[in-house]
Specification:
Helix content is about 40%, strand content about 20%. It is built from seven helices and seven strands; from the N terminus they run ααβαβαβαβαβαββ. A seven-stranded mixed sheet has the order 3-2-1-4-5-7-6, with helices on both faces. The N and C termini lie far apart (about 75 Å).
Protein backbone atom coordinates (compact mmCIF):
# COMPACT_ATOMS: atom_id res chain seq x y z
CA UNK A 1 0.00 0.00 0.00
CA UNK A 2 2.80 2.37 0.86
CA UNK A 3 4.43 1.74 -2.51
CA UNK A 4 1.13 2.44 -4.28
CA UNK A 5 0.59 5.72 -2.42
CA UNK A 6 4.18 6.66 -3.24
CA UNK A 7 3.56 6.09 -6.94
CA UNK A 8 0.46 8.29 -6.78
CA UNK A 9 2.45 11.00 -5.04
CA UNK A 10 4.97 10.94 -7.87
CA UNK A 11 2.33 10.99 -10.63
CA UNK A 12 0.24 13.79 -9.15
CA UNK A 13 2.82 16.58 -9.45
CA UNK A 14 3.50 15.51 -13.05
CA UNK A 15 -0.17 15.95 -13.93
CA UNK A 16 -0.21 19.33 -12.23
CA UNK A 17 2.90 20.38 -14.10
CA UNK A 18 1.35 19.38 -17.43
CA UNK A 19 -1.83 21.30 -16.64
CA UNK A 20 0.17 24.35 -15.58
CA UNK A 21 2.15 24.28 -18.81
CA UNK A 22 -1.01 23.98 -20.92
CA UNK A 23 -2.96 26.78 -19.25
CA UNK A 24 0.19 28.87 -18.95
CA UNK A 25 0.74 28.67 -22.71
CA UNK A 26 -2.91 29.40 -23.48
CA UNK A 27 -2.89 32.28 -21.01
CA UNK A 28 0.16 33.86 -22.67
CA UNK A 29 -1.42 33.48 -26.10
CA UNK A 30 -4.73 35.00 -24.95
CA UNK A 31 -2.98 37.91 -23.25
CA UNK A 32 -1.04 38.63 -26.44
CA UNK A 33 -4.28 38.66 -28.43
CA UNK A 34 -6.00 41.02 -25.99
CA UNK A 35 -3.07 43.44 -25.91
CA UNK A 36 -2.41 43.44 -29.67
CA UNK A 37 -5.51 42.09 -31.49
CA UNK A 38 -4.51 43.58 -34.86
CA UNK A 39 -1.20 41.67 -34.80
CA UNK A 40 -2.59 38.26 -33.79
CA UNK A 41 -4.60 36.33 -36.36
CA UNK A 42 -6.83 34.37 -33.98
CA UNK A 43 -7.74 34.02 -30.33
CA UNK A 44 -7.07 30.26 -30.63
CA UNK A 45 -3.79 28.67 -31.84
CA UNK A 46 -3.82 26.77 -35.15
CA UNK A 47 -5.04 23.16 -35.18
CA UNK A 48 -2.79 20.15 -35.80
CA UNK A 49 -4.59 19.68 -39.12
CA UNK A 50 -3.55 23.16 -40.25
CA UNK A 51 0.03 22.53 -39.11
CA UNK A 52 0.29 19.22 -40.98
CA UNK A 53 -1.20 20.56 -44.20
CA UNK A 54 0.78 23.79 -44.12
CA UNK A 55 4.14 22.07 -43.68
CA UNK A 56 3.50 19.13 -46.03
CA UNK A 57 5.05 20.67 -49.20
CA UNK A 58 8.36 21.55 -47.50
CA UNK A 59 11.45 19.72 -48.77
CA UNK A 60 12.96 19.21 -45.32
CA UNK A 61 16.08 17.44 -46.56
CA UNK A 62 17.09 20.65 -48.33
CA UNK A 63 15.95 23.11 -45.68
CA UNK A 64 18.79 24.85 -43.87
CA UNK A 65 16.88 27.92 -42.70
CA UNK A 66 13.18 28.09 -41.87
CA UNK A 67 11.73 31.45 -40.80
CA UNK A 68 8.40 32.09 -39.11
CA UNK A 69 6.56 35.39 -38.69
CA UNK A 70 4.26 35.78 -35.70
CA UNK A 71 5.03 32.52 -33.88
CA UNK A 72 2.85 33.38 -30.88
CA UNK A 73 3.53 30.78 -28.20
CA UNK A 74 5.15 28.34 -30.63
CA UNK A 75 2.29 26.35 -32.15
CA UNK A 76 4.40 25.62 -35.23
CA UNK A 77 7.83 25.71 -33.57
CA UNK A 78 8.11 22.15 -32.31
CA UNK A 79 6.60 20.60 -35.46
CA UNK A 80 9.16 22.54 -37.52
CA UNK A 81 12.05 21.56 -35.24
CA UNK A 82 10.94 17.92 -35.37
CA UNK A 83 11.27 17.97 -39.17
CA UNK A 84 14.30 20.26 -39.52
CA UNK A 85 17.73 18.69 -40.22
CA UNK A 86 20.27 18.73 -37.38
CA UNK A 87 22.31 21.38 -39.16
CA UNK A 88 19.25 23.51 -39.93
CA UNK A 89 18.00 26.62 -38.13
CA UNK A 90 14.63 28.10 -37.21
CA UNK A 91 14.32 31.87 -36.80
CA UNK A 92 11.02 33.19 -35.43
CA UNK A 93 10.20 36.89 -35.56
CA UNK A 94 7.56 38.69 -33.51
CA UNK A 95 6.92 42.30 -32.47
CA UNK A 96 5.42 41.22 -29.13
CA UNK A 97 8.05 40.89 -26.36
CA UNK A 98 5.60 38.77 -24.34
CA UNK A 99 5.77 36.01 -26.96
CA UNK A 100 9.50 36.31 -27.57
CA UNK A 101 10.28 36.05 -23.85
CA UNK A 102 8.01 33.03 -23.54
CA UNK A 103 9.63 31.26 -26.50
CA UNK A 104 13.16 31.91 -25.27
CA UNK A 105 12.26 30.31 -21.95
CA UNK A 106 10.61 27.24 -23.44
CA UNK A 107 12.79 26.32 -26.41
CA UNK A 108 16.37 25.31 -25.60
CA UNK A 109 17.15 23.78 -28.99
CA UNK A 110 20.39 25.26 -30.36
CA UNK A 111 18.76 25.50 -33.79
CA UNK A 112 16.07 27.84 -32.45
CA UNK A 113 16.39 31.64 -32.50
CA UNK A 114 13.63 34.01 -31.32
CA UNK A 115 13.93 37.61 -32.51
CA UNK A 116 12.00 40.66 -31.31
CA UNK A 117 11.44 42.69 -34.46
CA UNK A 118 9.41 43.26 -37.59
CA UNK A 119 8.98 40.75 -40.41
CA UNK A 120 9.63 43.64 -42.79
CA UNK A 121 13.26 43.51 -41.59
CA UNK A 122 13.65 39.80 -42.35
CA UNK A 123 16.60 40.37 -44.70
CA UNK A 124 18.66 42.09 -41.99
CA UNK A 125 17.63 39.50 -39.39
CA UNK A 126 18.59 36.57 -41.62
CA UNK A 127 21.94 38.19 -42.45
CA UNK A 128 22.62 38.93 -38.76
CA UNK A 129 22.31 35.19 -38.07
CA UNK A 130 24.89 34.36 -40.73
CA UNK A 131 22.61 33.30 -43.57
CA UNK A 132 22.37 34.57 -47.14
CA UNK A 133 18.78 33.51 -47.63
CA UNK A 134 15.88 31.50 -46.19
CA UNK A 135 14.57 28.30 -47.72
CA UNK A 136 11.03 28.71 -46.43
CA UNK A 137 9.13 31.44 -44.63
CA UNK A 138 5.90 30.73 -42.73
CA UNK A 139 3.43 33.44 -41.74
CA UNK A 140 0.20 33.54 -39.79
CA UNK A 141 0.22 37.34 -39.57
CA UNK A 142 -3.23 38.89 -40.15
CA UNK A 143 -2.39 40.81 -43.35
CA UNK A 144 -5.91 42.27 -43.54
CA UNK A 145 -5.49 44.15 -40.23
CA UNK A 146 -1.83 45.18 -40.43
CA UNK A 147 -1.09 48.94 -40.58
CA UNK A 148 -1.21 50.42 -44.08
CA UNK A 149 1.84 49.60 -46.16
CA UNK A 150 3.19 46.95 -43.78
CA UNK A 151 1.67 43.95 -45.59
CA UNK A 152 3.17 44.78 -49.01
CA UNK A 153 6.55 45.60 -47.41
CA UNK A 154 6.62 42.21 -45.67
CA UNK A 155 5.63 40.35 -48.84
CA UNK A 156 8.30 42.14 -50.90
CA UNK A 157 11.06 41.55 -48.33
CA UNK A 158 10.03 37.91 -48.02
CA UNK A 159 10.34 37.35 -51.76
CA UNK A 160 13.82 38.87 -51.77
CA UNK A 161 15.05 36.76 -48.83
CA UNK A 162 13.77 33.40 -50.09
CA UNK A 163 16.11 31.36 -52.29
CA UNK A 164 15.00 30.29 -55.78
CA UNK A 165 13.01 27.08 -55.33
CA UNK A 166 11.87 28.09 -51.85
CA UNK A 167 8.41 29.17 -50.75
CA UNK A 168 6.35 31.59 -48.68
CA UNK A 169 3.81 29.60 -46.61
CA UNK A 170 0.80 31.63 -45.44
CA UNK A 171 -2.31 30.67 -43.48
CA UNK A 172 -5.05 33.30 -43.22
CA UNK A 173 -8.73 33.83 -42.55
CA UNK A 174 -9.06 36.15 -45.55
CA UNK A 175 -7.52 36.24 -49.04
CA UNK A 176 -5.80 39.60 -48.49
CA UNK A 177 -2.35 38.05 -48.19
CA UNK A 178 -2.66 36.41 -51.59
CA UNK A 179 -2.94 39.77 -53.35
CA UNK A 180 0.33 40.86 -51.71
CA UNK A 181 2.03 37.57 -52.58
CA UNK A 182 0.93 37.82 -56.22
CA UNK A 183 3.05 40.96 -56.68
CA UNK A 184 6.19 38.79 -56.72
CA UNK A 185 5.62 35.06 -56.44
CA UNK A 186 5.42 33.29 -59.78
CA UNK A 187 3.19 30.44 -58.59
CA UNK A 188 0.75 30.37 -55.70
CA UNK A 189 -0.92 27.13 -54.64
CA UNK A 190 -4.18 27.40 -52.68
CA UNK A 191 -5.61 25.24 -49.92
CA UNK A 192 -8.26 25.29 -47.21
CA UNK A 193 -8.49 23.77 -43.74
CA UNK A 194 -11.98 23.44 -42.28
CA UNK A 195 -10.73 21.76 -39.08
CA UNK A 196 -9.44 24.98 -37.59
CA UNK A 197 -11.06 27.72 -35.49
CA UNK A 198 -11.93 29.62 -37.54
CA UNK A 199 -11.45 27.70 -40.81
CA UNK A 200 -8.50 29.13 -42.71
CA UNK A 201 -7.18 29.59 -46.22
CA UNK A 202 -3.71 28.29 -47.02
CA UNK A 203 -1.29 29.67 -49.60
CA UNK A 204 2.10 28.48 -50.82
CA UNK A 205 3.93 31.09 -52.89
CA UNK A 206 6.83 29.54 -54.83
CA UNK A 207 9.89 31.44 -55.98
CA UNK A 208 10.73 29.68 -59.20
CA UNK A 209 14.36 28.59 -59.76
CA UNK A 210 16.39 30.76 -62.11
CA UNK A 211 16.84 29.37 -65.60
Amino acid sequence: MTGHRGAQAIEQPNLKQKAARFFGQWGVFFRGFVEHPRMVGSIIPSSRFTIEKMLAPVDWANCKLFVEYGPGVGTFCQPVLDRLPRDGALIVIDTNPLYIDYLKQHYRDSRFHAVLGSAADVEDIVAAHGHEHADYVLSGLPFSTLPEGVGPAIADATYRVIRPGGAFLVYQFSAKARSYMARNFERIDNGFEALNVPPCQLFWGWKEPKT
